[in-house]
Amino acid sequence: MTDDELMGLAIDEARAAADREPSDVPIGAVVVGPDGAVLATAGNRREADEDPTAHAEILALRRAAAVTGRWNLTGCTLVVTLEPCTMCAGAIVLARTQRVVVGAMDPKAGAAGSLYDLVREPRLNHRVELTTGVRERECGDLLRDFFRARRARSGSDQQS
Fold this sequence. Notes:
The protein is an alpha/beta fold. It has helices at 3-19, 46-49, 56-68, 86-94, 136-159; strands at residues 28-32, 38-43, 77-82, 99-104, 129-131. It starts with a helix and ends with a helix.
């Protein structure tokens, strides 16, 4: 599958996260093995699981490790709709993920090229290949639409 097609799977996971009740921020992730087979998919579950670590990337990495039977995901690619935060970037590096494909960048909290660049930090023992901007507008629109709707609901809740 191409990066574009894989991002489509991640977008599906992001939409499912937003549609769940309670709704989570629409971020989705996919882990692909060295042979190109999809090992795991996940969407954010922080709200649903009441777990601050239940980011899409963390969940997808955990599931991929369970499928492969090893924590070391050398040769694997992680595809994610939003640039990983510092927690997720750290997990990506520690899992020895070979490559990360990002949809939208996150200039306020991103740790894969914008605010920080933890995944390519030369002082660490592993560096990750990074591809950005895959279906960027679509990924960004998902987030913008989600937060716009959330603000609109909050405004109507306050008026009641």
